[in-house]
Amino acid sequence: MPQLKIAGALAIAILLQLSLGAAWHPLSYIDFSLVVVVYIALQRHAWHALIVGTVAGLVIDAASGGLIGAGGFSKTLTAYLIYIAATRVNLENTLLRIPVLAAATIIDSAIYVFWHRSLGYPPSVPFIQTMSYRLIGTTVVGTFALYLLNSLFTERARQRRTFASRRKGARRGASTLKRR
Asked: What is the 3-state secondary structure (H, E, C) of the chain?
């Protein structure tokens, strides 16, 4: 069942990335598929993160007309590095995920450009400018997307929503006892 959720989230991310970039050019700097890859890697699902990174990169490479395989490799390597960091350091805090997402964006961009330059493809836009826009856009929008993915995928969040009415009543009752 979690594989279907991951596939659905990845499909939505790819569709958003391809359609929003075509609708308004500044939105093309937001890498929604990288956000999904980073989220899965932070959940410590190594194989899922590697497969999602590969599929996302290859689909976006094929749709954008770029060097096929460079995006797949960069997202796969980024997923692996984030997974290794998540296993070594506790990254469960929401605030720690923001710099992790920013670092993933920089790593992904650097690897992507490295493969383009290594294989003789000239850059069509300045690297630093593009990486800066991607860093800002992906980090800002990705922070909210990570929060949304966390609330949708996490079993604990689902239990919190289910029992929210019970906790609300229990808190109300406890506060009236303190007043007496």
From this structure: CHHHHHHHHHHHHHHHHHHHHHHCHHHHHCCHHHHHHHHHHHCCCHHHHHHHHHHHHHHHHHHHCCCCCHHHHHHHHHHHHHHHHHHHCCCCCHHHHHHHHHHHHHHHHHHHHHHHHHCCCCCCCCHHHHHHHHHHHHHHHHHHHHHHHHHHHCHHHHHHHHCHHHHHHHHHHHHHHHHC
**pTM for the model:** 0.83
Residues in the chain predicted with pLDDT less than 50, given as ranges, are none
Question: What is the topology classification, in CATH, of domain 2-155?
Answer: Arp2/3 complex 21 kDa subunit ARPC3 (1.10.1760)
Domain residue extents for the chain: 2-155
pLDDT tens digits along 81-127: 999 999 999 888 888 999 999 999 999 999 999 998 998 888 778 88
Q: Which of 138, 12, 22, 16 is nearest to 75 (CA)?
A: 138
